[in-house]
Amino acid sequence: MSVNSTTPPPRTSTFARPDGPLSRKNVLMAAALVLAGSLGVQVSSALASGLFSTFGTLGTSSLRFLVAALILLAIFRPKLRGRSRSNWLGIAIYGASMAAMNMCLYAAIERLPLGVAVTLEFLGPITVALLASRRITEALCAVGALAGVVLIAGPGGHFDLIGYAFGLGAALFFGLYTVFSARVGKTNDSMSGLALSVAFAAVLSLPFGIPVLHLVDLNSAGILLVSATIGVVLTFTADTLAARVSSSRVVGTLFSIDPVVGAVAGAVILGQSLTLTAVLGIVAVVGSGAALVWASGSNPPHVPER
To answer: How far apart are CA 61 and CA 232, in angstroms?
Structure first.
């Protein structure tokens, strides 16, 4: 989660602009970007998992945000002056949602089966997609994607009140992430906004990273660098660009790609078997995504305002 940002006319001229009509090309481009981000999440998670025993899950997440923030700030060198209050608010909420959804998801996974936690988290972006849907076709695509995720994850009857609370918290922040990836993505300096958002996430998560910072050695530093580049820089950049060329309602549905990529990667790389229900879930998600692309074909092209 699988899973990023955007001359003057005022910086906020496109910040709160409502989603416009989309072309099939835009939705296909968004799907490709979300897929790239999802692949980055899976690869980086595999790399980062080897660090959990040393830094803990939250410590590893914090250090990855710190490394990613330094990379993005060095590349885009964002200006701090000249930004409106609403622009800073969007950047702050985007960054806070990044940090919070990771922490809540990790806390949920410690108490719930992975499938349950993943399904709960996905309620966030799918709710955004449903609320923002303008046609019944889009709403049905979102529902179909949710059904597919439930089948892939295979949630069982395990119940843990605190675990569910963290899972729903992850859903809330994933929903905010979905909304503000579009808002930051549609600003004129989206990449600078992304860099500042990731820096904000890094600062918020520092209390988990500082206590383990002294444990970083040359080997773990290399793993953190690669994991942060692939799993944070690449993924969040892809997500922000996907939201820039499409909308929150589209990426909210497309984020269902994450559990599909995870299931397929587990089968191909780790030799894990896919159940019939998981295969049906993959078909449902892919079919919902294809239907979303098809439904967008009759719409005129969408060009972000300048």
So the answer is: 10
Task: Please state, in angstroms and rounded to a whole number, the distance separating the CA atoms of residues 246 and 136.
Answer: 18
Where b means 16+ CB within 10 Å and e means fewer, 4-34 reads bbbeeeebbebbeeebbebbbebbebbbebb
Which amino acid belongs to residue 265?
Answer: A
Q: Which of 246, 258, 293 is nearest to 105 (CA)?
A: 258
What confidence tens digit (pLDDT) does each residue in 264-294 have? Answer: 776 776 566 677 887 788 788 877 777 776 6
Closest CA to 72 of 215, 191, 221, 212: 191
Residue 269 CA to residue 267 CA, distance in Å, equals 6
* CA distance linking residue 185 with residue 6, whole number of Å: 5
Given a contact cutoff of 8 angstroms between Cβ atoms, the answer to whether 38 and 257 are in contact is: yes
